[in-house]
Design a protein that fits this description.
76 residues, two-stranded parallel sheet, mainly alpha
Length: 76
């Protein structure tokens, strides 16, 4: 909805990104996954806790990066 009322030069940064498997019940109320964020018009996403709190933060970051590549046609 934000895109409808602003100039396209505005950069949209979306926090609260959570992979589906990383949505604990006590987490933020409004979260979206990577695909939803970009489908909703995000230019950039903020992913913190799902990487920081992962058993293997590097693997978590790489999985999210792979999802981003898939969203933009660069992955499988």
């Amino acid at each position: 909805m934000l895109r409808d009322g602003v100039d396209e030069k505005l950069i949209v940064v979306t926090p609260g990104i959570r992979p589906v498997e990383n949505r604990p019940a006590d987490d933020q109320k409004r979260v979206v996954n990577v695909q939803q964020a970009f489908a909703n018009g995000a230019d950039y996403i903020v992913v913190g806790r799902p990487i920081r709190d992962a058993a293997d933060p590097r693997a978590a970051a790489e999985a999210i990066q792979k999802t981003i590549a898939t969203v933009f046609g660069g992955g499988q």
